[in-house]
Amino acid sequence: MRIRPAVKDDHPALCAIDTVAAGDPTRCADIAGWLENGCCHLVQIDGEVAAYGVLTRHFFGHAFIEMLMVGASHRRRGLGAALIGHFQAMCAGSKLFTSTNMSNRVMQDLLIRAGFRPSGYIDNPDENDPEIVFYSPLKPISS
Question: What pTM does this model have?
């Protein structure tokens, strides 16, 4: 497994593993924007793109995992946890947030295992499915 920053040439592979992109062409445009902004990282297994994540700094000036997507054929192999750990290491010494729908128990469980704590919720982004905000209490960088 290799985690690296995603580049423009990765766009087709990222769209191919994104289950939302198949039914929503705006997701491929979102991916292009994340690539252009340099905030997308991916996981490769044997040279194949298997997962990706997006780390932005638009959440009240703090780091925020905006997207985490693992290709359907690569799920339940620790790739999501590896990406989260990668982002936690990138943000050592600062605050890291993310969110997921209340209905997404798999992601909630993954976040709890990664040391995140619930930090509130937001009603109405999705009809009848509140967004739970999570916070990773990161350890300060050792001097």
Answer: 0.90
